[in-house]
User: Which sequence fits this backbone?
């Protein structure tokens, strides 16, 4: 992980929140306040790091692909099949089991190019402020705003990657079920047959 320490001031883990349930707008406000050369790490309220090495893993991925639009992570409960860790199926909500999975996953030193897919689940999303600006930010809604960032980033010509060695636990117990006051991004193309990514890039 040589050379990643110089990136430290640029990585900002944040957990946006909005009382009006406009999560996309809250993400946009948060990223807008960061330095121009920053990378935001957007965290869902119901996720948890499983090892203390997440920061270095993110810094290493950024150092290796600084021109990327965004990065996603691997987790236990997620709609995207390529983002789900199959070894976590039997772990339930045993946090210690998930920590062991996280440690074991660190041996996977690859980035999976997911640009061709139907969009990542934003349990943890790593995005540069520059790419966020080019993409036009998140959609102003509660649901599918992670997909909005994904598709807008791809449309802007940036690649998106999955850090296959970075595993987080996801409770997936949302405090907001769809309703009339909780809009989805109406233009979301996330439905339909999933394209499974195959192109892996080995980290040095």
Assistant:
């Amino acid at each position: 992980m040589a050379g990643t320490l110089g990136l430290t001031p640029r990585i900002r883990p944040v957990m946006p929140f909005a009382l009006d349930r406009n999560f996309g707008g809250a993400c946009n406000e948060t990223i807008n306040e960061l330095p121009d050369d920053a990378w935001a790490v957007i965290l869902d309220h119901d996720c948890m790091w499983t090892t203390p090495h997440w920061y270095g893993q993110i810094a290493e991925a950024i150092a290796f692909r600084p021109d990327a639009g965004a990065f996603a992570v691997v987790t236990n409960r997620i709609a995207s099949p390529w983002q789900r860790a199959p070894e976590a199926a039997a772990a339930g909500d045993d946090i210690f089991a998930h920590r062991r999975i996280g440690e074991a996953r660190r041996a996977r030193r690859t980035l999976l190019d997911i640009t061709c897919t139907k969009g990542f689940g934003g349990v943890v999303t790593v995005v540069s402020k520059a790419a966020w600006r080019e993409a036009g930010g998140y959609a102003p809604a509660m649901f599918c705003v992670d997909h909005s960032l994904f598709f807008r980033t791809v449309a802007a010509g940036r690649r998106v990657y999955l850090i296959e060695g970075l595993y987080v636990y996801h409770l997936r117990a949302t405090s907001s079920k769809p309703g009339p006051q909780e809009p989805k991004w109406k233009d979301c193309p996330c439905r339909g047959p999933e394209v499974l990514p195959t192109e892996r890039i080995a980290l040095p």
